[in-house]
């Protein structure tokens, strides 16, 4: 969709002096994310581009952009680094792409808490907060490039979730400041449960300009790979380690055969046919970790000290959706699912699915805390054949009691909790009455208008 030239010219005139990008190739590049992980989303989103990219330097400039878009009824889609996988920042209706990466300051920090701008990269935040002994609680595998605003607006959890749960858990996001798209845009602060009106809302109901986030103690994280002879030994090891209250951990990732074959840079460490656990553990816990490894007849095949781990590629870049990225670099027909398994310490359903689908759906586990207990989530690698077969795989999981967070839709509700978030809808009705913010992504809004 392309804006009428008169509207676009008027908008650009009103915003003279801001950082504007109109060069078509640059605009197209900044209209994209990693939606191509999904063969379902690819044909739906491949031709969607904005008309102009604007990079505000501060909240005052965001307010100027919001006012101009309201005046001319021009859609606005917010983006960070564009590392999402569901088309969160793809502009379905063209218009303005608001690139927040210039707003990257850590405004203040103190033990356990930091105030940051949305364009701050997660790794850059940690670089500053670790000077006082703290770090962010959780991050996606795109940690080096992802922004905190994009993570809160479009993400759910990641490295660190084995200890701290997900972003949606109370205490993992303390406050946000957002700019509205009312007739007279304003900046408002949300605290407490009100933060969830805009968290994981894909920027459909507010432009985040500041966040107050909790921090975690920054332990010296050693990186370890443990090899096992069979999948269930690896999976049970992951469950037991994740449950162990005395073990300080940041990542418990299980990649069974054949997934390790996709990790070219680690090939020399990974025996043929191995089933692996990728771990980030505090160096203070190495001695008890060895006992866990012995209990499950594993073998440590790779180990980096915390000091060495701070240099070069991190083991976390083989976990979460980087596992999918590595696999797709070898076989681009591979796609993925996101599954939460029941709270069953015996992992019976997980074992059933592993045997039932075989190599068609390659099990990949990321342990996280959910509802107060450690549970396996799976970002399974799927050998894609047809959309019909993919839907059959999803339905089979759901029929057996596994919960699918569908990564093959750009609608907020259909990909996540499968229900309308009335608080998010009501907030959008108030602060974005013309539906200009990232239109087409909130099913509740579309249904409200009868579309």
UniProtKB/TrEMBL annotation:
PANTHER family: D-2-HYDROXYGLUTARATE DEHYDROGENASE (PTHR11748:SF119), D-LACTATE DEHYDROGENASE (PTHR11748)
Name this polypeptide is given: FAD-binding protein
Keyword Flavoprotein: yes
Species of provenance: Myxacorys almedinensis A
GO BP annotation list: lactate catabolic process
Pfam family, one: FAD_binding_4
Gene3D superfamilies assigned: 3.30.465.10
GO function terms (MF aspect): D-lactate dehydrogenase (cytochrome) activity; D-lactate dehydrogenase (NAD+) activity; FAD binding
Top-rank lineage group of the source organism: Bacteria
Keywords: FAD, Flavoprotein
Record-annotated FAD-binding PCMH-type domain positions: 46-218
Keyword Transmembrane helix: no
InterPro entries per the UniProt record, alphabetical: FAD-bd_PCMH, FAD-bd_PCMH-like_sf, FAD-bd_PCMH_sub2, FAD-linked_Oxase-like_C, Oxid_FAD_bind_N
């Amino acid at each position: 969709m392309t804006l009428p030239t008169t509207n676009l010219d008027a908008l650009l005139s009103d915003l003279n002096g801001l950082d504007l990008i109109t060069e078509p190739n640059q605009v197209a590049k900044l209209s994209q994310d990693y939606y191509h992980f999904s063969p379902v989303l690819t044909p739906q989103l491949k031709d969607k581009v904005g008309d102009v990219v604007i990079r505000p330097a501060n909240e005052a400039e965001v307010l100027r952009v919001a006012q101009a878009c309201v005046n001319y009824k021009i859609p606005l889609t917010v983006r960070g680094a564009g590392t999402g996988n569901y088309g969160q920042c793809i502009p379905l209706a063209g218009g303005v792409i608001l690139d927040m990466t210039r707003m990257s300051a850590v405004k203040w920090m103190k033990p356990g808490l930091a105030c940051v701008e949305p364009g701050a990269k997660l790794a850059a935040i940690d670089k500053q907060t670790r000077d006082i002994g703290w770090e962010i609680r959780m991050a996606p595998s795109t940690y080096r490039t992802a922004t905190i605003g994009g993570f809160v607006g479009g993400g759910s959890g990641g490295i660190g979730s084995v200890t701290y749960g997900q972003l949606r858990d109370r205490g993992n996001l303390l406050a946000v400041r957002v700019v509205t798209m009312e007739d007279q845009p304003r900046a408002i602060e949300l605290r407490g449960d009100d933060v969830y009106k805009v968290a994981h809302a894909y920027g459909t109901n507010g432009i985040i300009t500041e966040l107050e986030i909790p921090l975690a103690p920054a332990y010296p994280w050693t990186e370890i790979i443990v090899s096992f002879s069979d999948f269930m030994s690896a999976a049970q090891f992951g469950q037991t380690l994740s449950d162990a209250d005395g073990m300080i951990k940041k990542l418990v990732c299980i990649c069974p055969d054949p997934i390790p074959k996709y990790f070219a840079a680690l090939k020399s460490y990974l025996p043929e046919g191995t089933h692996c656990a990728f771990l980030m553990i505090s160096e203070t816990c190495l001695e008890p970790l060895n006992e866990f490894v012995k209990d499950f007849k594993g073998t440590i095949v790779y180990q980096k000290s915390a000091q060495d781990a701070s240099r070069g590629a991190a083991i976390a870049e083989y976990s979460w959706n980087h596992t999918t990225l590595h696999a797709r670099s070898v076989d681009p027909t591979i796609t993925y699912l996101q599954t939460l398994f029941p709270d069953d310490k015996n992992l019976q359903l997980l074992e059933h699915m592993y045997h039932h689908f075989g190599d068609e759906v390659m099990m990949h586990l990321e342990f996280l805390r959910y509802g107060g207990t450690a549970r396996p989530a799976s970002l399974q690698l799927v050998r894609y054949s047809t959309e019909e077969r993919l839907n059959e795989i999803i339905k089979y999981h759901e029929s057996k009691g596994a919960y699918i967070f569908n990564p093959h839709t750009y609608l907020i509700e259909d990909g996540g909790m499968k229900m309308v978030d009335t608080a998010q809808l009501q907030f959008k009705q108030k602060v974005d009455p013309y539906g200009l913010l990232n239109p087409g992504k909130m099913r509740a809004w579309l249904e409200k208008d009868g579309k």
